[in-house]
Tryptophan-rich sensory protein (Aureimonas pseudogalii), 159 residues
Amino acid sequence: MTVPSLLALGGFLLLSALVATSGILFKPGAWYRGLRKPAWTPPNLAFPIVWGILYVLIAVSGWRVWREVGLATIPFGLFAVQMVLNFLWSWLFFGRRRPDLAFLDVVVLALTVAATLLAFWPIDRTAGLLLVPYLAWLGLAAALNLSVWRRNRDRGVFA
């Protein structure tokens, strides 16, 4: 692996880390602990572990496609949009306490990740496959988001 390629991988990992800061800036806290959640809610410890792994997979996926086509492509427009939507979810759900808007965000995010996967696939199949766990987790996240919103919408706990 060349030095520029390693630097680019570091850049993709840094971008993923920056997106991940939304989970640090907008923490669940006492408000989230007080919400009614379904019995199938993953344990709190699962979230940082799963997201940590997913952010590495996202970074490696982007880096693999970058090696083939560079950044000035439609696939990277989709990649950029999904990174912004990913960052916004924590702000909407935890920061603004708007699970309704967060649900809309996570649905659009999942669709954008699916489009990114489809755009990456013909360029580098491994890069596309690296996004599959992310897409699966977003399905769970969307279902959990919707369930929490519906279980709590009449309790006056949302902004």
The longest helix spans residues 46-69.
